[in-house]
Amino acid sequence: MLFIKVILREFKSQKLRMALTVAGITWGTISITLLMAFSVGLEKQMMKSTYGLGKGIVILWPGQTTLVYEGLPQGRIIHFVPEDLDLIKEGAPGIDKISGEYLRWGVVVEYGKKQISKLVSGVYPEFEELRSHYAQVGGRFINELDFKHKRRVVYLGFGVAKEIFGDKDPVGEVILLNGIPFTVIGVMVKKLQNSNYHGPDEDYLVIPASSFVMIFGDPYFDNFVYSVKEGVDTKDVEKSLFKLLGAKYRFDPNDRHALWFWDVKEQAEVTSKAFFGINLFMWFIGGMTLLIAGVGVANIMYVAVRERTREIGTKIALGAEKKHILFQFMAEALAIAFAGGLLGILFSMVVCKLFRMLPLEGPLELLSQPTVNWPVAIITVITLSIIGFVAGFFPARKAASINPVEALRYE
Amino acid sequence: MDNGKLISLKKITKTYQTGRIEVKALRGVDLDINKGEFLAIIGPSGSGKSTLMNIIGCLDIPTSGKYYLDGQPVEDMNIHKLASIRNKKIGFIFQNFNLLTYATAYENVEMPLIFAGKPGRIRKEKIMECLSSVGLADRAEHKPTELSGGEMQRVAIARALANDPEIILADEPTGNLDSRSGGEIIDLFEKLNQAGRSVVTITHDMNIASRCHRIIRLKDGLIESEKNNHQ
User: Fold this and answer.
1) What residues does B29 pair with on adjacent strands?
2) 3-class DSSP state for residue B79?
3) In chain B, what residues touch A1 (CB-CB under 8 Å)?
4) Helix (H/G/I), strand (E/B), else coil: A65
C-alpha cells in the first residue's frame, strides 16, 4: 500500500516529468510491439499465401537435354506420359502424393448467354491436398470415381465462379467447355496465394485428368506436382528422379536442364529464415527505442533519489537495511517501466484490432493480420523488465549508499 | 531500577573532513548512560551535540575511541547488526519530525515494523498501541499535513516506540514547537522514562533540561560540565 502511495506521490509531484517518462516507455513498447505484430502478421500471411500454392510441394516440368548422352544429341525435348506416374511412384519411394497435370488455355466456357475463355487443368484427385484446392461448403473436389468413370464434372476457382455465376451457387449447374456439358461439383474456398505457375488458382477450371484426355486428347503431361514424405529431403528425391527419368528418357542424370524443379517447400523455409532475420532487426530497432526510454526512467529515478535524500536518511535511522532502500527504488523503476509497458501493449492491441477490421485487399492483405501473440508479449515484458531493472539499479544503489548523517542534514 | 550501564563511551573523537579543512566535532568524550536514565545534552551550536547523538544512535562511527552498547563494542558490529540496533534498540526522534508526508500517521508508525519484518496482524496491533500511548489513536488515518506540529512529533514518538526500544534518542524534539506542545512532548518523555526506557534528548531549552535527571553540557567537542538534578 505504502509503496503504491510512494509512486503516486511521485506522480503528483513530478507530473510532467513522470508523464514524459511513462510516455517514453509507452512509445518504446508500442514501437517494439507493433513492429513485431506486423512482422509476425506479415510472416503468417506470407506463409499462408505460400501454402496457398501448396504446403511443402515440388513442381516438376520436363525440360530439354543439354548434354550428349549415350550417343544421343543434346537439345532433345523431354515429355512426360501418364505411365511415368507409376514409374515415379515405384522408383521414388520418398514421394508421398503425386499428380500429373494437363493444361489447356483458351477453352471456351459457356453458361446461358455468358461466354468466356479460360484455362482448364486436368488433374488427379491427389491434387486437392497437394495444391490446397479445398472446396467451399456444399461442393467437393474431383474424386477417384470421377477419375475412374471419366465423369464430365468441373471444379471452379472462386474467381471463375464469380465471373460466370455472380452470387448464384454454381454447384449442380451445367456449363459447356468447348461445347461439351460439364456439371459443376465445387468451388474453391478463397485463399491467399502469392505464387503460381499458370495463373492464380482462383482463375481456372479443374476437371479429371481422364476426362481431359478423352476430350482434348493430350498425350503428354504439362507437369507433375508432388509432395515428399515427412523427414525426406526434397533434394534427395530430385536426385532419384534425375536417375529414374534419365534412365527412361536416356539423358545424363547430371543434365540440369532435362528436368525443372520448383521446390516450394525449400522456398518456404527460405522465407521463414528471412523472417527470422527481419524479426531480429525489428527487435533491435524496438529495443533501441526502449533503451532510450530507459534512460528517461533512470534520469527520473536519480531525481527521485536526490529529492528523497532526507527520507532515505530517516529510514536508515529507523532501521532500514540497504535492501529496503534498494527495493523501494528498484520497484519504482520497474513500476514505471511496467505502467508504460502496459499502456504500450494495450495501445498496440487496439491498433492491431483496428487494422484487422480494415478491408484490405490485394497485396495490402499481407499486412492485414498484425498479431500480438504470446512470444511478442513475453519478449516485450522481458525487455521492459531488463530496462526497468537497469534503469532503477544505479539510482537505487546510489540511494542505498547514502550516508544517513548527511542525508538527515540535507535540505 | 537496574542501574547497569546501557551505553559507555570512552574517549570518543570524531573528525570531519570538509574539503581541505578538518573539523574536530568531538575531541574525546567519556560518557556512561545507565538504563532508565533521563539525560539532557545541551550546548551551543557546533559543540558536537548532534554528532554525539549520531554516534550513540549508530548512524555514525567515531574516528577514535570505544563505544559499548550493552557491553558490546559497536565497532565489531556489521551493517546488518547496526541496522537491527537502530530498528529495535533505539528510537529516533528528530527536530523536524521527518515523517513521510504522503503517508498517514498509521503508515508512518508502521515503517520500523516493516523493517523489522513483523507480520501484518502484529503490526496493526502494535501501531494502534503506540498511537494510543501518545494519544493519537483517533488520528491514525490523518496525514502529517493534517496534524499540528505537536501531533506530528507525537506521531514521530509513536514511530520511535514501535519496536519497543530501550533507548529514545531525541535531537531537539521541541525545537520546532510552541512551548505548550513542547511541554506535552516532555510529559510524554517523562512517562516513557518512568516506564523504564532511557531517554536522551538534545535541547536548547533549559526548562526542558531541568526536568531531566542529568544534564551534560558540551562545548567544543568536550563535556564541559555535568549536573545531576534529582539526586
Assistant:
1) B12
2) helix
3) 107
4) coil
For every residue of B131-191, DSSP letters joined together read HHHTT-GGGTT--GGGS-HHHHHHHHHHHHHTT--SEEEEESTTTTS-HHHHHHHHHHHHH
Inform me whether the C-beta atom of residue B8 falls under 8 Å from chain A C-beta atoms: no
Q: 3-state class of B46 per DSSP?
A: coil
Which residues, including other chains, have CB under 8 Å from residue A32's CB and lie 6 or more apart? Answer: A282, A283, A285, A286, A287, A289, A290, A344, A380, A383
Which residues 319-348 of A are in CB contact (within 8 Å) with B?
319-322, 324
More confidently predicted of A224 and A298? A224
Beta strands in chain B (DSSP E): 5-18, 21-34, 38-42, 64-69, 72-73, 90-93, 167-171, 198-202, 214-219, 222-228
- The three grid cell numbers given for residue A318, joined into one nine-digit string: 529507523
Domain ranges of chain A: 2-52+268-409, 57-262
B residues 105-124 closer than 8 Å to A (CB): 107, 110-112, 114-116
The C-alpha cell that represents B105 in the structure block? 500517521
The string of pLDDT tens digits covering residues B62-119 is 999 999 999 999 999 999 999 999 999 999 999 999 998 888 999 999 999 999 988 9
- In A157-212, DSSP assigns E strands to 174-177, 180-187, 204-208
β-pair type (A153-156, A204-208): antiparallel
Closest partner residue to A404 (CB to CB) among B59, B100, B107 is B59
* Interface with A, mutate which of B53, B102, B152 (most A CBs under 10 A): B102
**Phi, psi angles (nearest 5°) of residue A219:** -85, -25
- DSSP secondary structure letter of residue A203: G
CATH number of B37-60+80-228: 3.40.50.300
Amino acid letter, residue A214: M
pLDDT band at A369 (very low <50, low <70, confident <90, very high): confident
Q: Evaluate whether A305 touches A399 at the Cβ level (below 8 Å).
A: yes
Residue pair B104/B145 in contact (Cβ under 8 Å)? The answer is no
Residue A5 CB neighbour total at 10 angstroms: 14
- Number of Cβ atoms within 10 Å of the Cβ of A256: 12
What does the pLDDT look like over B109-166, one tens digit per residue? 999 999 998 898 999 999 999 999 999 999 999 999 999 999 999 999 999 999 999 9
Cell 510516455 belongs to A23
The rounded distance, in Å, linking the Cα atoms of B222 and B16 is 16
